Amino acid sequence: MALSRRFLIWGTICLLYGTARAQASDSMLANAPKCAIECSTELLSNKEYAELGQEAMCNSKPFAKAMGVCLMVKCSMRQTMDFIKESSAACGIPPTNKTTSYRVNSTVVFAFALVFFALRIVTKIRLGLTWGIDDTLTTLTVAVMIPYYIVLQVMLAFGLGLDMWYITDEQIILIFKLFVVIEVLYLTALVLVKAAILCFFLRIFPDHKFRIVVKCTIVFNALIWVGFFIFVFFQIQPFSLFWNGWQQKKGHLILTGSTNFTLPLAGINLVLDIWMLILPMTQLWGMGLKLKKKLEVISMFSVGIFVVLQLSLRFESANL
Fold it and tell me: Per residue in 241-263, pLDDT tens?
């Protein structure tokens, strides 16, 4: 559940404050940070919220906003997250746990990638086909995917897929450190596989103008990779803010800055994918084949449409 949704349930603690004085050891406030109790008491004295029932407080956006402002001033990030955990339990909202689904999905995708790569190599050997640059780049892609998969499994073991407030500060810091590593590996693999496809185009299509366009696309693809590294290593100083910045009062600004870069990057990759789908079509349509055969060949090269659709859906959801 999104963090904004969690803010809606913070107000529940206010309802418990009145009984906390008489039942301090049993109250849900017993483990709540002192600063959060102060915020609750302050808002409870406001007539606008004093008459709200528990369910209303759990779903009141104005109350959530007011509570969030107070917590940002009076509480640390850890105290805020502890309070979210307490109020989540008070509102009956179960913890989010997507660890298993992430693990299964990543394992299935990784296994399919290895199988298809193995089939490619076996076909090359059995048919005695020439080894090309595209084959080398594909091999490098798989070599990068292996540590990517391993790092992802380590992140899942340390709490990726769980709500932040249910894991320790040390786990959060480690996950953010590994996130930097996995982003570098992911984009490297993405650039390599695109380069492999483009080099394959160079191998099978002889048209001179087409080859120039493909080579320019290869350069542009490489520049995306270079641009990402410049962003990663020079946007935030000191570099440790990538994994420690969340603990600061303005840590969210660091994450927002990263998002402002990654979303355009995802958009550029989406446009590049569409462009790479169009490129071979310009050559295939002009081939001297019957229409039926021509459409069959084009359909083979159009399998990537599914990848583009998936990427566009992910881009849309990330932009919401």
Answer: 777 777 765 555 555 555 555 66
Structure tokens at 227: 């641009």
In the predicted model, residues of the chain with pLDDT beneath 70 are 1-31, 50, 52-54, 232-237, 248-263, 286-320
pLDDT digits (tens, 9 = 90+) for 145-201: 999 999 999 999 999 888 888 888 899 889 988 988 988 898 899 899 899 989 988
Q: Which residues neighbour 297 within 8 Å (Cβ) at sequence distance 6 or greater?
A: 284, 287, 289
Of 273, 231, 136, 149, the C-alpha closest to 192 is: 136
C-alpha 79/C-alpha 72 separation (Å) is 10
Count of CB atoms situated within 10 Å of the CB of 201: 21
Beta bridge partners of 97: 162
Alpha carbon distance 226, 77 (integer Å): 34
